[in-house]
Design goal:
The chain has 137 residues and is an alpha+beta fold. The protein has helices spanning 4-13, 20-30, 40-47, 57-70, and strands at residues 37-38, 74-77, 83-86, 93-97, 102-106, 131-133. The protein folds into two domains: 4-77, Winged helix-like DNA-binding domain superfamily/Winged helix DNA-binding domain (Arc Repressor Mutant, subunit A, Orthogonal Bundle), CATH 1.10.10; 88-133, no CATH class. Helix 1 packs across helix 2 (20-30) and helix 3 packs across helix 4 (57-70).
Amino acid sequence: MHQKKEIINKLRSSNLRPTKQRILIAKKLFDRKETFHFTAETLNQVINKKGQSRISLATIYNTVEAFKKAGHIREILTNNSKSYYDTNIKSHHHFYDPETKKLTDIDYQEVVLNKIPNPPKGKKIKDLEVIISLQKK
């Protein structure tokens, strides 16, 4: 999907030097067909599987934070006070299953709101995201 040049451009636009470790992190995030929802810890598990090269959790956190600041990924806060990240940066909503700790995308048009509160004085609404928490029937 993403060629090495595109991966390196994402790193550089995030003010990161394209080291071997960061290129591997970026490939895990962006070289895929579907949206990827993850925490830094789950990304660490995916990257540091047995028998593969080791990347420190600090490097993963710093790289993810730089991608977030550059707008390449979104941070999603759920009610379990854990930061999840999403490689889909377009406006959309999520289902959150606290049992499996999984997020599932919901198309932006599928959630219809009748009333949105006015933002505080001096502020405007940049985006609106709805997270619907699930439970078993």
